[in-house]
Design brief:
The protein is of the alpha/beta class. Helices cover 43% and strands 16% of the residues. The strands form two sheets. Strands 1, 2, 3, 6, 7, 8, 9, 10, 11 and 12 form a ten-stranded mixed beta sheet that branches. Strands 4-5 form a two-stranded antiparallel sheet.
């Protein structure tokens, strides 16, 4: 897909969303009056836990709660359109930084987010995480869950191959070849879904960029570094090398994210490189009794293997919320032990609020242990100045796999997008 085709696709989705939002909806006005309603919007990978907490909150409060769910790409594309047209939900999922259309820096700059600095949970967020949802010292989002990118794998399928988890990049290539010899693929890859294109590069740059230069994002911001000529070149070259080594299924460009999960759950692939936020979606269609593990994708041969770590799920309140009182009350409740128990009982993950008491599944515990050891790198896009860089990345990886661009061309397009941010 070319960049122009990608941009036309995004524009079409945004126009369609605007038209749909306008049908039967009137722009909302902010209110501090109590109402009996609440509107919430989130992404499809949060649907199961969100439905669980909404059901619990409805029983608790008697509110009439409406939930809207969309795939991540569609959600990010339409959120700002809905906010600008006055048809957005009262509470909605947001991301830290400014790397995508649903990121708080972009939304707060436009005046769409309520200041949550005085909420009772604001001082209980895990250190190092709270700052990611602050602008000018003010808090604009509640981080519910931490996230990490790595290989989520079916332990039975790995055992069937007789192989072990690779610890170095060299071992990774051998692992892919050995798995292929067993009639399977190491990693299901569905980059027809554009946001999936970023996951393996993010996992690899944890080693090729941030392990040696933790301040790389700051250097980029100060125009002292570029994607071209950095460890990003090594990461994308390794992405291509993994493809040539048979690490992935046939036709990743024709495979969407849901189909990639199916490859794992039917035993055709050992695992999939994903965010832990998608864990519940992956396991929801797995055979009964299936067990999963997690390991960092090795980007080098040191064996250190850091993982990208960031905020997996966070929520903001619409500053023009029609049901503002209820919106603030719901977000406050989400931060309580009661809600945490409901959320993580429905979808395994890593709580962002300190002191949360959960029982982690093995795959999640492995990620928790890696994070506790400090073997982490940032999600790269949290430091990007605008969503243009991410769009260039998505389109560039698809062009890389289709042979329409090489590594330097992809990174040059990202540098150009960064410079116009």
């Amino acid at each position: 897909m070319t960049t122009s085709m990608f941009n036309r696709k995004i524009a079409a989705l945004a126009a369609m969303a605007l038209a749909l939002a306008a049908c039967g909806s009137q722009p909302q006005a902010p209110s501090n009056e109590k109402t009996k309603a609440l509107k919430i919007a989130t992404t499809s990978n949060n649907q199961e836990p969100m439905e669980a907490v909404i059901e619990a909150y409805k029983k608790k409060t008697g509110l009439d709660i409406n939930l809207t769910v969309a795939d991540t790409a569609q959600y990010q594309t339409t959120l700002r359109t809905q906010l600008s047209s006055g048809t957005a939900s009262d509470v909605f999922t947001v991301w830290p930084g400014s790397g995508n259309p649903g990121a708080i820096s972009i939304l707060q700059k436009a005046g769409y987010l309520a200041d949550l600095s005085d909420r009772p949970w604001a001082g209980k967020v895990e250190p190092g995480t709270a700052e990611q949802l602050k602008i000018g010292g003010k808090t604009y989002g509640l981080p519910s869950k931490l996230d990490a990118v790595g290989a989520i794998y079916n332990t039975a399928t790995l055992k069937e191959t007789g192989l072990k988890v690779p610890k170095t990049y060299g071992e990774l290539l051998t692992f892919c070849a050995d798995v292929k010899a067993k009639g399977k693929v190491a990693f299901a890859l569905g980059i027809q879904t554009d946001w999936v294109t970023q996951l393996i590069p993010y996992a690899l740059v944890a080693s090729t960029v941030y392990a040696a230069d933790p301040g790389f994002n700051d250097k980029m911001a100060q125009r002292q570094a570029t994607f071209v000529g950095s460890g990003w070149e090594s990461a994308l070259a390794k992405y291509q090398e993994m493809s040539k080594a048979g690490c992935f299924n046939d036709d990743p460009l024709g495979t969407d994210v849901t189909a990639s999960y199916s490859l794992v759950n039917t035993g055709k692939a050992v695992g999939v490189v994903q965010v832990l936020a998608s864990y519940s979606q992956i396991t929801s269609t797995a055979p009964e009794g299936a067990e999963f593990g997690f390991f960092p994708l090795p980007g080098g041969d040191s064996g250190a293997n850091p993982v990208p770590r960031g905020i997996g799920v966070s929520f903001a309140v619409n500053d023009k919320a029609e049901n503002r009182v209820n919106a603030l009350g719901f977000v406050d409740w989400l931060a309580t032990p009661e809600a945490t128990k409901v959320w993580f009982g429905a979808a395994p993950g890593i709580p962002a609020i300190q002191g949360a008491d959960i029982k982690a599944e093995p795959a999640v515990q492995e990620a928790i242990d890696i994070i506790a050891e400090g073997r982490t790198a940032p999600f790269p896009d949290t430091g990007w100045p605008s969503a243009r860089v991410q769009a260039a990345h998505f389109a560039g990886i698809q062009q890389l796999f289709s042979g329409q661009a090489d590594v330097k061309q992809v990174l040059a397009s990202m540098d150009e997008a960064y410079g116009t941010g």
